[in-house]
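Project standup — Tuesday

K.O.: blocked on the structure for the chain from last sprint. Re-posting the sequence here as requested.
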Amino acid sequence: MGILSNIFSKIFPASHAANASAAPGAAPASGAAATSTPAVTVTASAAPTAIAEVDVEQMLDGMAAKSPEKLNWKASIVDLMKLLGLDSSFAARKQLAKELHYTGDTNDSAAMNIWLHRQVMNKVAANGGKVPADLKD
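H.V.: unblocked you, prediction finished:
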């Protein structure tokens, strides 16, 4: 399981389509996966709208409020990963950059971290997460 898959598993419920399709390096859900999602939503007995879209900001803000550390998940990939209980080391972030096909210099951690945060927010949004517009492209 890749780091992006781990991020998805922490953000989305187990029944969410993003967790079924989040293989390491996986692209956003394809048309086929998007087509099958409504069938899952229709047959689910739980609230279908909760499965269709996850309010990422509300969920992560709630987690941050309970955290003993002051974590700025909206600006920092390191803080986002810490908040989700994931390894946020430089090596882990380099692995995530590889999964997401980062073409820049991975030794320039500042540039890589900014790019990673934006890409993770884009992937979360593409897979059914409600993400604030200023956090994605």
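K.O.: great, moving the ticket to review. Residues 3-135 form one domain. The chain has eight helices and two strands.
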